[in-house]
UniProtKB/TrEMBL annotation:
Superkingdom of origin organism: Bacteria
Name the record gives this protein: CRP-like cAMP-binding protein
Domain HTH crp-type: 157-231
UniProt KW keywords: DNA-binding, Transcription, Transcription regulation
Length: 247
C-alpha cells in the first residue's frame, strides 16, 4: 500500500493529465486511480533550451508536468523549425524511426515525468474502463489534428492568419487544464520562438504581432497575450465555423 507522501506525489504530478483527459470525457474515481498507479514518480528537470532525452527504440514517453516543450528540427545553417508544442498535461512520445530524427527540447524551464508505463498500458485495451479509453481516443485524435493543422498553417496561411490560428489553438488547449479568463493566454514564448513555430523570420513575426495589436485583436507581452476579440481573431485566422481549433 502506498504511504501518504507517495499518494500526494502522484496526485500532484498527474493532476494536469487528469484534467486534460477529463476535458475529453468524464472520468470516474477508478480511472483516476488507474492513471496514478501507472506513474512511478520518476521525474527529470530540464533547463530552457536543453534536450528532453527520449529513447525511440523503447517507445519512451514523458508527461509534461511543468513548463513547455517543443519538437522540431535544426537545419545546418542554424535555422530551426518547431513542428509541435507540448504543454502541461500532454505527453511526449518517441516511437520509431520518424521520431528518432526529431529533436525534443524544453522551450522553458520544465519538469517531465516518466509516462512510458501509462502510454504502454493505454495501448493495450481493454484493461481500462470504457470511459478512460474514450477520453484517451479523443486526446490522441486531438494530437493528430494539431499536427495536420500545423501543416495547413505553414502550407496555406499567410503570416497574419498563422499567428491568429496558433494563438486560438493555444488558448483552447490551456482552457482544457482548468478555468481561464476568456482571451487571456499564458504565453512564455519569445518572438523568436513564435517565429520558429510559424516558419517566419524574426522581423516578419514582430511586424505581424504589431499588426494584430493595431487591429485590436492581440496584446502580446512577455509571458502572456490577451486575445481581445476571439470572434474577430477566428475570422483573421480564416477559420470557418466547422473547422475551428477544437483541440
Amino acid at each position: 500500500m502506498k504511504n501518504q507522501s507517495e499518494t500526494h506525489f502522484e496526485t500532484r504530478h498527474t493532476e494536469s493529465l487528469e484534467r486534460m483527459l477529463s476535458s475529453f470525457g468524464p472520468l470516474g474515481a477508478d480511472d483516476i486511480a488507474y492513471i496514478r498507479d501507472c506513474f512511478t514518480g520518476a521525474q527529470q528537470t530540464h533547463a530552457a533550451g536543453t534536450p528532453v532525452p527520449l529513447a525511440p527504440e523503447r517507445n519512451e514517453a514523458r508527461l509534461v508536468f511543468k513548463g513547455w516543450a517543443a519538437r522540431g528540427a535544426m537545419l545546418e545553417d542554424g535555422r530551426r523549425q518547431i513542428v509541435g508544442l507540448n504543454l502541461p498535461g500532454e505527453i511526449i512520445v518517441a516511437s520509431g524511426a520518424v521520431d528518432a530524427d526529431m529533436l525534443v527540447w524544453a522551450l522553458t524551464d520544465a519538469v517531465t515525468i516518466d509516462a512510458t508505463a501509462f502510454w504502454t498500458a493505454m495501448s493495450q485495451p481493454p484493461t481500462q474502463s470504457a470511459r478512460l479509453l474514450e477520453a484517451w481516443r479523443h486526446f490522441r485524435t486531438a494530437e493528430r489534428l494539431r499536427m495536420a493543422r500545423q501543416v495547413i498553417r505553414l502550407g496555406r496561411l499567410n503570416a497574419y492568419e498563422r499567428t491568429a490560428h496558433l494563438l486560438l489553438e493555444l488558448h483552447e488547449r490551456q482552457a482544457r487544464l482548468g478555468p481561464v479568463v476568456a482571451g487571456v493566454l499564458h504565453l512564455p514564448l519569445t518572438q523568436d520562438m513564435l517565429a520558429d513555430i510559424l516558419g517566419l523570420s524574426a522581423v516578419h513575426m514582430n511586424r505581424t504581432l504589431q499588426q494584430l495589436r493595431r487591429n485590436a485583436l492581440v496584446d502580446y507581452r512577455a509571458g502572456r497575450a490577451v486575445l481581445q476579440n476571439l470572434t474577430s481573431l477566428a475570422q483573421a485566422a480564416n477559420l470557418s465555423a466547422d473547422c475551428g481549433p477544437s483541440l
